């Protein structure tokens, strides 16, 4: 079936894919390999991210803990970014991806304002390798890789096997079993967005703290590099 502009999610439809990611917070070591892999896969410019890993030190000495939390677009089943895009440049694919049509995007940033997860950014115009710029961009769940039988670049490179990707409609998939058997949570469920990124074992305290700024130290380092190389220029938004 062709890609639909505002396709309904394929919830529980046998024979249809329903792509989702499970992020096991017990396993993340904060190596940022996923962030680097994503940057390389898409030539993601300095200052913006499709995915990042937030870092938070919790507790008081000697009972301290460093918590890592990978963040990306949640490929929501009820995405406010899609509902609010005036040109239908962003849309829900029937297999679950929330994607961008760059040629329709007028960079009005309505989708950025509508997204409760700050998962979108504007691509700068002065890119060197990939010429797409001046439009809004975000994580695609690596649709170009997944449709060719691969997993997303961040999943491929995750040495901790923190990020697990698969088809929720496949009863034998690892994601289906994990979502069914583990205590999983999604970010900001009260927003009604129905995220398709599921976290294993986040405590409410951690989720609350990690859902808001400050950004990860990788993001901070990236921002500093951006300013070093772009004197006088401003960020393009999208700090996850
Ligand atoms: S996380 Fe934000 S950008 Fe991604 S689908 Fe949900 S509302 Fe849209
Ligand atoms: S690659 Fe895996 S372990 Fe490393 S930071 Fe990313 S999610 Fe965590």
Q: Main sheet, how many strands, which sense, barrel?
A: 4 strands, mixed
Distance between the termini: 33 Å
Number of strands: 10
Topology order in helix (H) and strand (E) letters: EHEEHEEHEEHHEHEEHH
Structure in words:
- This protein is of the alpha+beta class and 240 residues long.
- It has eight helices and ten strands.
- One iron/sulfur cluster binds next to helix 2.
Keywords, separated by commas or semicolons:
single chain, 240 residues, alpha+beta, four-stranded mixed beta sheet, two-stranded antiparallel sheet, 10 strands, 24% helix, globular, disordered N terminus, disordered C terminus, binds iron/sulfur cluster
Topology:
Elements: E1 19-24, H1 33-42, E2 51-60, E3 63-72, H2 80-84, E4 90-92, E5 98-100, H3 110-114, E6 120-122, E7 136-138, H4 143-146, H5 153-157, E8 163-167, H6 174-181, E9 184-185, E10 197-200, H7 204-210, H8 217-229
Parallel strand pairs: 1-10
Antiparallel strand pairs: 1-8, 2-3, 4-5, 6-7, 9-10
The structure holds iron/sulfur cluster (2 copies).
The site of one iron/sulfur cluster has 16 residues, from helix 1 and strand 3.
Summarize the structure.
The protein is of the alpha+beta class. The chain is 24% helix and 20% strand.
């Amino acid at each position: 079936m062709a890609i639909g502009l505002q396709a309904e999610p394929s919830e529980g439809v046998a024979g249809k894919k329903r792509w989702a990611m499970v992020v096991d917070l017990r396993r993340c070591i904060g190596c940022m390999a996923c962030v680097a892999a994503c940057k390389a896969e898409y030539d993601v410019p300095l200052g913006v991210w499709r995915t990042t890993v937030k870092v938070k030190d919790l507790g008081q000495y000697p009972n301290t803990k460093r918590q890592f939390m990978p963040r990306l677009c949640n490929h929501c089943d009820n995405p406010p970014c899609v509902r609010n895009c005036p040109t239908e440049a962003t849309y829900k694919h029937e297999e679950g991806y929330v994607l961008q049509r760059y040629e329709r995007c007028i960079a009005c940033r309505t989708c950025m304002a509508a997204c409760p997860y700050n998962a979108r950014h504007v691509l700068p115009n002065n890119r060197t390798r990939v010429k797409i710029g001046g439009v809004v961009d975000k994580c695609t769940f690596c649709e170009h890789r997944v449709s060719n039988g691969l997993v997303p670049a961040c999943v491929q490179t995750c040495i901790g096997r923190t990020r697990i990707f698969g088809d929720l409609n496949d009863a034998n998939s690892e994601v289906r079993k994990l979502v069914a058997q583990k205590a999983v949570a999604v970010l900001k469920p009260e927003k009604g967005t129905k995220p398709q990124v599921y976290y294993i074992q986040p405590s409410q305290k951690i989720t609350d703290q990690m859902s808001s700024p400050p950004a990860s130290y990788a993001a901070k380092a990236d921002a500093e590099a951006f300013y070093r190389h772009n004197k006088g220029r401003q960020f393009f938004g999208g700090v996850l």
